[in-house]
Write the structure tokens for this entry.
Amino acid sequence: MKIVIAGTGKVGFTVAQRLCREGHDITLIDEKPEVLEAASNAMDAMICCGSCAAPSVLREAEAGKCEVFIAATGNDEANLVACQFARRMGAGHTIARLRNQQYLDSGESLREIMDLSLAINPDYVTAEEISRVLQFPAATQVDSFPDCELEIVTFRIPERSRLNGLALKRLPPEREKKVLVCAVERGGRVQIPDGNFVLQAGDSISVTAQPKTLRKFFEAMGAYQKPAKNVLILGGSRIAVYLTQLLEATGVSVTIIESSNERCQKLAELLQDADVVCADGTDTTVLAQSGIQDADGFVALTNIDEENIILSMYAEKLGVEKVVSKINNEKFTDLLRDVFPDTTLSPKNLVAERIEGYVRGLAHASDKSTIEALYYLGNRDVTATEFVVGAKAACACKTLMELRLKPGVLISAVVRGGKSFLPDGKTALQPGDKAVVITAGSSVVTLDDILT
Amino acid sequence: MNYRVVCNILGKVLLAEAILLLLPMTAALWYHESVLPFLWTMLPLALLGGGLNFIKPRSNSLFAREGFVVVGLSWVLMSAFGALPFVLSGDIPHYIDALFETVSGFTTTGSSILTDVEAMSRGCMFWRLFTHWVGGMGVLVFIAAILPVSGDHYIHVMRAEVPGPTVSKLVPKARKTARILYLIYLGLTLLEAIFLLCGGMSFYDAILHAFATAGTGGFSTRGASIAAYDSVYIEMVIATFMLLFGCNFNLFYLILLGQARAIFKSEELRVFLAIIAAAVLTIALNIRGSVGGFAQGLRYAYFQVTTIISTTGFATCDFDKWPELSRWILVLLMFAGGCAGSTAGGLKISRVIIFFKSYLYELKQLILPTRVKRIWFEGKAVSDQTVRSVLVYFQVYMFIIALGVLVLSLDGRDLVTNLTASIACMSNIGPGLSLVGPTGNFTFFSIPSKLMLILEMLLGRLEIFPVLFLFAPSVWRKR
């Protein structure tokens, strides 16, 4: 597919690189030639220098001929204008990155007026993800799928857990029906386990189940933690504002530490109930005064990765149950995996994932299957993709036992008629069903790819 | 350095050469000649290439350094093996001579050491002219077009092989760009072959001369080159196609897209055509007395100017006997070369333009030092980085030509011979003046001189740096 991406910042670059690897024809637009130069060295893409809101530049980049136009510059208005122009010129779909939530709060209307296919706010997406993890502190990652009640929860097995040394087939039988272990990461390698697989402490496992069942499962396994009730947020960024709003809606009390007085005034204006502390969060006495010892959740959202990491480690040492840090540089994430097992989030990756899922859905839509959503579990090797089973899918109307699945492929959840359940060998996929497919290693872009 | 990726790509290059050798072998079969020279070349190529191809890279990271090394080594290896059929068939008994001929072929130079061209077997002759076609667009671009190579960084390889100060892609994917370039190349070659067939050339000669023109090479199946046909039609067809192959291939793509008007906005093309027009007129006027009238003068001048500026090197007359002014104009044209992104050699018109503009810039800067101004080219301000690299390129180019003359002087020939031989090889033209003129050849040079010229041809075709990097220890050292 021909895709034009305007803005080669953190988000634009990541999205471009991922889509380029999938074989799409990418054209990048940016105002800074040196940034474009670096991008053209890192990926097989065409570059075009200029403002993305200028029709002449869009024409040069052939935005009118592309199937997807993604505007990901740091300027909301430029993104909106660029998308509008591209759509008028004939772009098939437009995706805009909008950081001002007011544009999105007006519901569907703005998207309808501007004819946007997708509008993404990276800060809001990140805040949602963090709030989901804080609801389920034992997990490092929680993913849910549209229309599917089941969630995929990734967590690390602690030393004292009953899961340590347990083979999967010996999981208590009444649990096995309701809980499915779909991926295990050990020592940087990910695999899809079978019944003989023996779990160890330190493994990071992804489990699919109903939220309530998951809670029971975690309780039984000695790994359950209550949702955070008292959260300390470091850094008063936009993410912090959205996160506070999301958390307060569920009755969590929030304290925000922000060093800039001006910003603190703004935060106090935006947030009625949250405690806003104007102080330097890197100072341990400030943290103590703000009540870090009583907090059961700590979220580091400053703009400096290193600060986030160090302070998260400090908070963990003080015994805060759930620690989340925002990390922009993904190289750090890989390094940190061993020394710092808690949740790390990168807004650009979250956005890139959403856009990638959307583009994949467009690129591989057919009467066999369409993609509804896509997530990465743990590191980059495992994907969870939600497909809609098409009328002509090769795997439709056969029981899972009859299907010859590729190694490293697992169907972890099925949604049928609004009800979601874990499939077993006797389940047969029907056209119109939604199936969540977990894959490790192999690339699966249509539902038929899961068969050998 | 990522040695595994380098080896893997080299393996592919050697395999590609083995496959390309099938064509001259078919020609040998057709004319009932021995195919053994080709078989014995293909065998080691296939073995070594297959072996290297088995080395699977651990990571696909490929940066400017690997790109340069891959390109430099590929060309050296390709030439080393490509010389074998000539030696094995006995057409060129000495290996160094055969290597000279092969490098001259791949680099599309067209300088020959053959004293009797027509005595060569038909299979070897096919290979000799076919090397022009292979080398013209570049073998690594060819590989990118036909094989699934890891795409993210292959642009570094293309950048090292495609001539010109900057490489622009036609479409987002490097692989599709390579394909489009080769299709245009193939299409134009076939078109020329058809035109030549219409002019009464034999099928074999038409195809081979189309190869030699497309790569802007200059080898011919005849000892007297194009003069042997003595046909105005054939001369005009070949001259026009030499001019076309001296243009940037991106322009042909624009025509294919239906934007024919856009090509005349190209500053480089306009300067290219202006230089040709001025040179043709001046030479025609200058030589009209000796060739029998202005019309004849135009005929010879058009052919010789296009053959020199496109760095092809065919001959329709002995321009060494022309007046001094015309001879000197031809020598100047030898430096200019064709447009960037063409199959021609030389400095390239775009570099010459930037070079002269920076001259004017310095002059104006002297008059008003506080003035702030950038050099403009093709409607855009040129980055200082590009200007600097153009200036450095020009200096290194001149330095290598001078060094070449120094080595050739050891043989004790006259300065004009040595100087024009050095320029002709560096700019990938073919014939020079005096002893290496259109009627002469390079066979009398000593072995050290031939090796120097071989080096110059490779340096000229690959735009110096890929070959130069092979000699730099810091490139090979592990980081």
User: Anything to note?
Assistant: The longest helix of chain A spans residues 347-363.
